[in-house]
Amino acid sequence: MTPRLIVLCGFACAALALALASGSSGWGYAAADIVWQVRAPRVLAGFGAGAALALAGALMQLLTRNALADPYVLGVSGGASVGALAAIAIGAALGAHGEWLVVGGAMAGAIGAAALLFALSWRFLGRGGVAASGETSVALLLVGVMIGTASSAIVSMLLVLASDVQLRGMVFWLLGDLDGATEGWLACAGACVALALAWPRARELDWLARGDAWASTLGVPVARRRRLALLAAALATATAVATAGPIGFVGLIVPHALRLLGLRDATVLLPACVLAGGTFVVLADAIARTLVAPQQLPVGVIAAVVGVPAFLALLLPAGRGVRA
Predict the structure, then answer these.
(1) Beta carbons within 10 angstroms of residue 104's beta carbon
(2) Most exposed of 5, 27, 186, 189 (fewest Cβ within 10 Å)?
(3) Contact (Cβ atoms closer than 8 angstroms) between residue 187 and residue 243
(4) Alpha-carbon distance 151 to 118, whole Å?
């Protein structure tokens, strides 16, 4: 483990301890039952979701060689949103409710969107050559954007048809909300499985990011590595969105921030994204719970409000460029 990863591990542990001391009643450790039964599952869910989104963002940027790529260009997030909102509406109509209903709906929508993404882009993922390399990246992005656009239209329709009681819960979920999240293991498992799939082949992903021709000359099975990276990114995105809703910003900015700090090799960047993404969301959620306590804010709003100025402060003074 490199010194920078050790430092990130220290920051992650400190963020987890701080988050366990924050609640809607303010700062400070409460009774053990509250800490371990209420706060700990939410903290675990936030860390897993942030880790999965940051890892998926890094994989998408490597796969597409596009600095603006993030987990949501896959369209998997849109599918999860459709599934979650449909589950909320159906559950209200049937008199059923609960987190597992929403999580199950989100996972079903995410899996459906991922399957559609693979089906529509499979032939592009198998192409090789310099010309086809650029065409593959563009085609993959376009397919993901079209799935996301169609999902957004369905989400809009569900919001229009929802009752006033359902609408508040739907809007909060769409903003990224950890309130009531108790199944944090799902996002953590998604991040771990995605990292286990991608990290052993991180050097090959670095070569792939330089171009398919370059990777082919070094013996990289280009088509299989593309599909592997897309599978890992889709899995991480699906579990993160099913757990916490579509938290924006994390998957786009965290990988870039780490590159600005010198972590460019995928062998270090991928595990660093897991640690940094999880830490970022945990801290953002701690602020969301305590800023206007006892009222709680959506963590997705805090992530953008706090993260954008922090990233610009890191980027602009040095005049650094950002690249995938």
Answers:
(1) 15
(2) 27
(3) yes
(4) 16
CA 209 to chain centroid, in Å, comes to 20
Residues 109-161: tens digit of each pLDDT: 888 888 888 888 776 666 554 444 556 677 778 888 899 899 999 999 999 88
pLDDT of residue 131: 40
pLDDT of residue 310: 76
- Three-state helix/strand/coil letters over the chain: CCHHHHHHHHHHHHHHHHHHCEECCEECCCCHHHHHHHHHHHHHHHHHHHHHHHHHHHHHHHHHCCCCCCHHHHCHHHHHHHHHHHHHHHHHHHCCCCHHHHHHHHHHHHHHHHHHHHHHHHHHHCCCCHHHHHHHHHHHHHHHHHHHHHHHHHHHHHHHHCCHHHHHHHHHHHHCCCCCCCCHHHHHHHHHHHHHHHHHHHHHHHHHHHCHHHHHHCCCCHHHHHHHHHHHHHHHHHHHHHHHCCCCCHHHHHHHHHHHCCCCCHHHHHHHHHHHHHHHHHHHHHHHHHCCCCCCCCHHHHHHHHHHHHHHHHHCCCCCCCCC
Low-confidence ranges of the chain (pLDDT < 70): 1, 23-32, 95-99, 123-136, 180, 293, 314, 317-324
Burial of 295 (0-12, 13-18, 19+ CB in 10 A): exposed
Residues 183, 188, 193, 194, CA torsion sign = positive
Residue-range domains of the chain with CATH? 3-315 (1.10.3470.10)
- In contact, 104 and 194? CB cutoff 8 Å: no
Contact 139, 63 (CB under 8 A): no
Strands 26-27 and 22-23: antiparallel
pTM of the prediction?
A: 0.87
Instruction: Kindly give, in sequence order, each residue whose CB lies less than 8 Å from that of residue 245, ignoring residues fewer than 6 positions away.
Output: 81, 84, 172, 173, 174, 175, 176, 177, 300
